[in-house]
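Intended use. Records such as the Pimeloyl-ACP methyl ester carboxylesterase entry shown here are meant for training and evaluating sequence-to-structure methods. They are not intended to support clinical decisions.
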Amino acid sequence: MPRHSTRAALALTSALSLAFAHGPATADTAKPPVRNIVLVHGAWVDGSGWKAVYDHLVADGFHVSMVQEPETSFADDVDATRRVLDLQDGPTLLVGHSYGGSIITEAGVHPKVAGLVYVAAPAPDVGEDEAALSKSMPSVLAMTAGAIAKTPDGFTYLDPALFPKLFAPDLPLARAQFEARGQVLAAASVFSTPLTAAAWQSKPSWGIVAGADQIISPALERFYYERAGAPITTIPGASHSIYESHPREVAAVIEHAAAELGKATK
């Protein structure tokens, strides 16, 4: 069990009671010791989706960086994250959405990482991979025939006609359609590469469940976070694009985690 597993009793804390009970950043939390945030996007999208979360965090005094991983291989994506972590000037909170959860689990052993936040994301253990684990609790995506297409050279993407319905039903349709046509194709192997490290075993973690997620089963997200001993925030009705459709709530959980880590380092 992770050494922070005693926090598991707090795991089912609601989104708003956990995040908004702390209100806007105060003089004590605006510049906590952990003030660096690194955001890692998931498959088929890029770092621009973090813009609204970024704006909230920067307004509250955080130094925020986005990783633009290439999605060409799991190793490439972890390396891209490590490069950004190397550039940080102190303790850093590492945040991953969707497939980005696998990336931060592997890259999170970096010495500058103080903690992890999973946003509708997997948190595999050593030797596990996202693709195999998803079969235990299939999502709507997994049960939708033809939703994931593959190029002849092994790169995957969501059928653009289904992207708005499956990935981003709570975004304006025009925006979801734009994202569907601007997908970053992901090598199929990124989902099935076994992890060699699991940072949540030794570093404090927090998890956000998207209550209406159709890409990853909300039940599977909850399983990951409970196993990691991570406090869980559930945002009811949120789709897989939760970081875009509910940026204030997501940013509030990130800020809460940074404040908690700050207390631990004082």
